[in-house]
Here is the input.
Amino acid sequence: MLTRATALAAVLTLGIVGTAHATYITWEFDGTLQVTTGTPVSPELQSLGVVPGADVHGFFRFQTNTPPLFPGNPYVGNYAGAVDVASITIGNWSLARSIFVPDPTQTVSDLIVTDRLTSEGLGAEQSSIDMLDPTGTFTFSSILALELSTRQPDVFDTTAMLTNPPDLSKLDPFGFDPDSAFGYGTDVALYAENGPGGTATTFRASLTSLMRLAFTPQLAVELPGGIGNVPEPAGGILMALAALASLVATRRC
Here is the structure.
């Protein structure tokens, strides 16, 4: 099983390679909040407009030359460390890419997985990104997931990361679908929780648009520590964090 520490070591070590020549691409998405499951939405979030029918908007930026964690796998491409900036707003509630709150050394905040079309006729790509909730409603973990699935053979015909988003008309529609890759067709989901045994809510939105931008917008929220602007890649920091992650991974294995 790929633990957070082991994955983090691989993420940061691989992220050092080619950083100076990286190509960054930004995808922007819009949608409508359709359903929430788990713990009912708090009155505070409801006051921010987090109710069914609320507008959903966000983006994430990823590095296209990120190597796969498991090269040679003919069925799945796992690109950890690809995403460096992300934001989502539901109603007037905004979150941004951050750290894994309980233990920053365990952050695996940027994972893109591409599943090539299988014999069962399913192809999919999921972007899984650690986010920070500045309202403090969810203090343990908030995971943004853009979940794209299809039964058409020309969308995910390799395990390579997509650089241009697929046409929504070629993807499975939103809605409960246990036979789709993620169980809900194509959606943008936010999995938020307050730790084992605590409150947990899943927010699911249908997509109305998905496009590639020629620029990266500013974050919609000011995070603790003054992280309010879109950061530039920092190779030196990556190297230091990679060394730390390797040590953590060694101790946890």
